[in-house]
C-alpha cells in the first residue's frame, strides 16, 4: 500500500489510492479527528499521484475517484475541503471542493487553471517561494487569488500582497 517516497520529504510516501477499502478506515479516522477538534476545513496534500512516479500504476480515473471520495467524506463531517495540486482535473473536481490551495503557480505559469475556482465564487490561496512579490502580487490580485511569499522551510516568515487602495 505504501509507494515511493515523495521528493524532498523523507517522511512522506505515496499511497496506493486504488486500495480505498484499506485506506478508508485510516482516512475516516483522520477526518473524524479533525471534526472532533473543531476544524473548519481539511486540505489533503499531494492528491495528484497519477501525475507522479508513485510506484503504482495510477491513472487519472483513480485519482478522480479518490479525490471525490475524500471531498464527500470531509463534507459529511461538516467541514469544508480544499484542493491542493491535481490541476489537471480542476474542472471535474470543482463541484466537490470549496477552495483551492496552490504552491508556485506563478513560478510554473499554471495559475490560469485556478481561475475556475474564482469564477465559481470559491477562494484560491497560494504561496510562492522563489518569485519576488513584485513579480506576482499584481497578477495574483488580478486573478482574485490570495497569495503570500514564504520561505520553502515554512518557518515563521511571510510577505503578503495588498490590493491598491
- Proportion in β-strands: 15-25%
Class per helix and strand makeup: alpha/beta
Number of domains: 2
Rounded mean pLDDT is 91
| Cα radius of gyration in angstroms | 16 Å
The number of strands is: 8
Strands side by side in the biggest sheet: 3-4-5-6-7-8
| Through-space gap between termini | 52 Å
Low-confidence stretches: none
N-to-C series of helices and strands: EEHEHEHEHEHEE
3D shape: globular
Separate helix tally: 5
Characterize the biggest β-sheet: 6 strands, mixed
Q: Report the helical percentage.
A: 25-40%
Description:
This protein is an alpha/beta fold and 165 residues long. Helices cover 33% and strands 21% of the residues. The strands form two sheets. A six-stranded mixed β-sheet has the order 3-4-5-6-7-8. A two-stranded antiparallel ribbon has the order 1-2. The longest helix has 17 residues. The radius of gyration is 16 Å and the shape is globular. The termini are far apart.
How would you describe this structure in keywords?
alpha/beta, 165 residues, single chain, two-stranded antiparallel ribbon, 33% helix, 21% strand
